[in-house]
Give the backbone structure.
Amino acid sequence: MFKRVIKIVLIVALIALVAIQFIRPEKNNEGYKSVASFEAETKPSAKVASILKENCYDCHSNQTQYPWYAEIAPFSLWLDDHIEEGKEHLNVSAWENYTVKKKEHKLEELIEMVEDGEMPLQSYTIIHGNLSEDDKKLLLQWAGLARLKYKHQLEVSSTK
């Protein structure tokens, strides 16, 4: 009896696994041109731009480089959820639509998340590797300088 129940459960699980393969999330492939406005405005160095591309843009822009397992459900659904959630918090492809105050705040959050080790996510770094301390330092310096620019704009506009 117990073997029969296990066999039925395994067959149902296999059918569900095959069926879920037909659920295909839309790909996040707008291209790196979508980050051009962000990079033009925040002016990252070539090294920082490379750090952003390799560690941030997959979840925080409209361009994702998908790993091979992104074609297999449930991983495809899990990745899609991560990308959508990441873009809700910060989407550099929508940077030109953010207010100066929101830009300053997003850079503040970026700094806090990197300093606290919350970004990139551990689930991302397991496969893609973590930021080196030098890369973190460069990223934080760039974000701090870019943030100062927006803070200054806010101060100037509040005195008018």
